[in-house]
Amino acid sequence: QVQLVESGGGLVQAGGSLRLSCAASGSIFSIYSMGWYRQAPENQRDMVARIFTVGGTAYADSVKGRFTISRDNAKNTVYLQMNSLKPEDTAVYYCSALKDGIKYWGKGTLVTVSS
After folding, report:
1. In the chain, which residue ranges form alpha helices assigned H by DSSP?
2. Given CA atoms 58, 61, 62, 66 in this order, what sign does their dihedral have?
3. C-alpha to C-alpha distance for 49 and 99, rounded to whole angstroms
4. How would residue 63 be classed by pLDDT, with cut points 50, 70 and 90?
5. What pLDDT does residue 110 have?
6. pLDDT digits 0-9 by tens, 69-109
7. Phi/psi at 61 (nearest 5 deg)?
8. Chain centroid to CA 24: how far?
9. Taking residues 43-51, what's their average pLDDT?
């Protein structure tokens, strides 16, 4: 089992920045990747960014150049730095971890970008 706890969401004006954090605990050995997904009301949950244990990252086209995913292995924490935020970035952001073919989820943190 992997437990994930997100933090850092909130209300920000368009053009502003936020940094989300995701602390992982439990059986974190051999996690293949961790990532951030988001879900706006009445929309599906979409991938925002992923970071792979073996190296490398992936981003949704809509956030490339604005968002950066990173990790601190000593703290078992993954971050999502979000810059130049837009109203369309408003959503609940979920942290995920993929391990042994199972995807684990945090409870989510709300990000609201006002225009």
Report:
1. none
2. positive
3. 17
4. very high
5. 98
6. 999 989 999 999 999 999 999 999 999 999 999 999 999 99
7. -60, -35
8. 12
9. 97
Distance CA 31, CA 102 (A): 10
Residue 61: which residues within 8 A CB-CB, separation 6 or more? none
Question: Which residue in the block uniquely carries the two structure tokens 């995701």?
Answer: 22
| Tokens standing for residue 62 | 């809509």
Residues 67 and 51: beta-carbon distance below 8 Å: no
User: What count of other Cβ atoms lies within 10 Å of the Cβ of residue 43?
Assistant: 9
Contacts of 21 (CB under 8 A, 6+ apart): 6, 7, 8, 77, 78, 79
User: What is the arithmetic mean of pLDDT over 25-29?
Assistant: 87
